[in-house]
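Below sits the subject:
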Amino acid sequence: MSFIFSAATKITARVGSEPIRNAINILRRDMNNVFYPSETEGGNIILDGSTGVSEDYKITVGKDIVVTSEGDLGFVYALLYISEKFLGVKPFWFWTDTLPPKRERVEIEEGEYLSPKYAVRFRGWFFNDEVLLLKWKINGDADEPWRMAFETLLRCGGNLTIPGTDKTSVKYRKMASDMGLWITHHHAEPLGAEMFARAYPGTSASFTEHSDMFYKLWEDAVRAQKDYKVVWNLCFRGQGDKPFWGDDTSGKFDTPKARGAHISEMIERQRETVKKYSLNSSPVFCTNLYGEIMELYDEGYITFSPDIIKIYADNGFGKMVTRRRDAHSKRVKAMPVKDGGSQGIYYHVSFYDLQAANHITMLPNSVDFINGELSKVLENDGNDLWIVNCSNVRPHIYYLDALRKKWRGEDVSDKTHSMEFANEYFGGSADAAKALEMRPKYMIPYGENEDEHAGEQFYTENARLIAHQIIADREKNCPQLNWFTGEIPLAKQIEKLSGTCKAGLGGLKKYMEICENVSAGAAFESIVTMQARVHYYCAAAVSKLDEIFAAFEKGDFKKAFMTAGNCAELFDAAQEYMRGSEYGVWEGFYFNDCFADIKHSAYMMRKLMGFIREFGDNARHDKWYRDAVYAPEDKDVFLLLVLDNHMTDWELYEAMKGEA
């Protein structure tokens, strides 16, 4: 006997909840996308069981499909499994425009399907640095991108989310919960509470002075989330992603011991607050050993209750060591400890560090490298909670898919993962698979450690810093670059930055050409090839910064001006390729690129051109104009000072290009 799955198939639920209703609607939409309209009589899908927290399910296929579970998520996962297994709708179908071919019906042989076993208990995404999602709409709907993002997380087997940063996380808590997900919080937002500085503007965020205000914020946060499934984040940091002692000038926390003791005390106070107000008799707790917290914990100054899941964090580049902050980079080991109690990780496939990270392009390190780090996490019992910084999802789907497999305890590699991903989303193209496999080999190394490969911020952010420093005070070095160069003169800093990009430029060009020769559909072109172009053109721009500064210092202002213009054009090209990758539902996706902000890097190069012009052109801005557009015999005739409106810097640049 076989089950006939067609447009006429009905879904009957003997159990109901908002997550189950949402999942039924998703399956019905998938059926409408896959099946031609049909009156063919077929079997029904019947949901039977009870609501609760279980994720286990059983699917029995006979004349009908019967799904049984004891929990909301069990039913959600079962319905999404039916969509993937029998209709062919893959986890990242939306982000790659990949729907299976339409058909009349599907015949399914009788059998039984059981829910998979996961290696990780809580599996989630943190929609952090989500600036693209903030301004992008689908058919005019600003909420639809979030529904699709949460759906994708569920399709990947996720059960937990931080649904945005700051105000956004509050806005989308209910939607995420209604789809069946647990909620947790940013590592700088204890209990998901409102930030002190917003709740009490103008008031010093000092616990010493205003402890009652902090307590009220925490209590209000617990009450506001009492109806959700929550993994309560316990922490105490400053106003923003920084240490709290920058906000408290009482002098009470000037030593590591005092800071650690205070953090430990605040975490216990928050834990007691949850136990007092939460409706859950057995609340789940976590705390993030992030940045300075990891250092204090490593030194023995912070202690936790054993029922709190300790979350270790990678450094933003996939290495399980503490992150670099400014020029401070101790690289304290952040790997969970064998038999260390309840443990998990906060892991980045996207990061924003204003130095070298990736935000609009993929992680610059290999799948092999990631697999090694995450396998060690599992070996060290770090399997209670994994929260992955997924940023704006689409640029990072290749690595998010690899993490999905690691949640299930699978090994992944550049070779196997690239082939599987290309098979599912790029039409089985062997060339696409090869391009994905080879990509990490061409990413520019900026340091000696295995994880130190450049994301696009290495180009865009540092180019802007250099331009600012030249304009503001070229006698001093650029302090924001000391993390990379050390405290050396500005000229040497620029030489090192440009030299690093020059050394890797040939490889980036080769990789870009490899991608451009791949024929694997619009998604490959608009994600993989586009990112290759962004890397190449932005690195090419930065590779010219040393030429600009050297020419400027020698007094060859025209050369410096023209090279800065060329730099701007290269950033323009990267920006045009990025925005040119938008089509259909993706129109406007990169509109709000305000982190990498390629367009602002081009703007800063144009500003630098204007600065240089003031040194080389005359005060009336007519000398370079005459040199560029007048015939030789007319240049020294001044009966009429100028014959045209004064040229802007860019108009002059275009004219001077013709002169060259």
